[in-house]
What we know:
Layout: H1 5-14, H2 19-38, E1 43-45, E2 49-56, E3 59-62, E4 69-72, E5 75-82, H3 84-93
Antiparallel strand pairs: 1-2, 2-5, 3-4
Helix pairs in contact: 1-2
Amino acid sequence: MALTKCDIVEKIYDMGFTKKESVDVVEQLIEIIKDSLQEGDDVLISGFGKFCIKQKDQRRGRNPATGKDLMLRERKVVTFKCSGKLRDLINDSQE
């Protein structure tokens, strides 16, 4: 089951904030992250990971539905690399 924005708001609400404050905090955090990425800046959250913008060159692709070849335009994509601490935490919980 995925953690949703509503779940995050609810967890912040449980910490003693009002519902409106909780929603505002989550919305503002997401806007800050989106604005930074849109400007081409990386977003580094210590102990969690790093969001980066990568440039993808134009390349040949294929439509999986029809099998026809096509050219995919150059574009930017967002990537995420988790921190070592997060990776260790996830792997330790598997044992």
